[in-house]
Amino acid sequence: MIELDNIHLTYPGHPAPVHALRGIDLRVPAGEIFGVIGRSGAGKSSLIRVINLLNRPTQGKVRVNGADLTALSQTELRSARHQVGMIFQHFNLLSSRTVFENVALPLELVHERPDVIQRRVDELLDLVGLYELRDRYPAQISGGQKQRVGIARALANNPKVLLCDEATSALDPETTRSILALLRQINRDFGLTIVLITHQMQVIKQVADRVAVIDAGAIVEQGAVMEVFTNPQQTITRSLIDEILPQELPESVIARIRQLMSSEPSNQGQLLRLAFSGEDATKPLLSDVIRRFGLDINILHGQVDDIQGQLFGSLAVHARGASDQLNAAIAHLREAGVVVHNKELSHV
Ligand SMILES: Nc1ncnc2c1ncn2[C@@H]1O[C@H](COP(=O)(O)OP(=O)(O)OP(=O)(O)O)[C@@H](O)[C@H]1O
């Protein structure tokens, strides 16, 4: 559905040009919710605006639904853009127009008949739960309601793709949840492909099917959300996940490990960090390895969370036993789909 090939984007700037995107390759299949996450200045906004050519890349190709947008004339591009709706962090509503008139605007711009506009806007306002507020002005509604107007307006021309530029960053957590639930509903009901950019892992965790991590203008890691959460490869990804699911051991646990080391220096064993997902999170894997491999396992720290209805858990355990048995247990856990990172206790 969306294909970006070797996208580079350079802004003219003083004293030097800014190379904001550096060779981005992305594939977003139809019907997917694809999240791009990164820190401030990483290039997220630059990237999302390339997808509808609000930013024209300095180099590279942008294909949406098979059409190479970079090769279209201005008129062709205007019509291709109807397939791509967009919502914004600060909603971008016209303050002098009512809720109804804001949603009607894209239909007026393509000269739809007034009766068609009336019907379509009523339908959209119903979809986003704002029918009752159709005569209010933006100043008379809440942030979450404004974003609902933004969503209705973005859907007016029946796009195939919806781009969300930090769409929930100005909203509180509760309102964020309800907007993300609405996006998920639209994605399911209409098969709409959604690309969203965010700096919050919470948003990715709640709604995205797949995620790409952008850092200094390049995609450094991507994959299914559960896969990236259970086995992040890059430091930046770990630190972003850490904000909602701490990956670092708390100080109290490290103190406990030091205490174990000083009390039993001869049999230190290993510190195992285990990440489970889906069904694995509920299987009695630990009691199984204790039995099979005769290990002594002491749980130091753990947490279980939910990623879009799938369980996700992480555990830090202190494992002691014969070293061949310990290695066999680690291999067994890995075979069962658990991501295992192990360290000698003395190296913690
Ligand atoms: N119009 C512009 N002219 C010059 N430089 C720009 C322009 N827009 C963005 N940049 C620079 O490009 C880089 C990427 O910016 P971009 O806004 O895409 O990042 P971002 O990840 O969306 O950041 P944020 O989360 O803070 O909005 C930054 O170094 C930024 O300063």
Layout of helices and strands, plus pairs?
Elements: E1 2-11, E2 18-28, E3 33-37, H1 44-51, E4 59-64, E5 67-68, H2 74-80, E6 84-88, H3 99-109, H4 114-127, H5 143-155, E7 161-165, H6 173-190, E8 193-198, H7 201-207, E9 210-215, E10 218-224, H8 225-230, H9 235-242, H10 251-263, E11 270-277, H11 285-293, E12 296-307, E13 310-320, H12 323-335, E14 339-344
Parallel strand pairs: 3-8, 3-9, 6-7, 7-8
Antiparallel strand pairs: 1-2, 1-4, 4-5, 9-10, 11-13, 11-14, 12-13
Bound molecules: adenosine-5'-triphosphate (ATP).
Residues 11, 13, 18, 20, 38, 40-46, 199 line the site of adenosine-5'-triphosphate (ATP).
Pfam family, one: ABC_tran
GO molecular function, one term: ATP binding
Function: Part of the ABC transporter FtsEX involved in cellular division. Important for assembly or stability of the septal ring.
Tag the structure with descriptive keywords.
348 residues; alpha/beta; Rossmann fold; 2 domains; 12 helices; 14 strands; elongated; ABC_transporter-like_ATP-bd; ATP binding; membrane; amino-acid transport
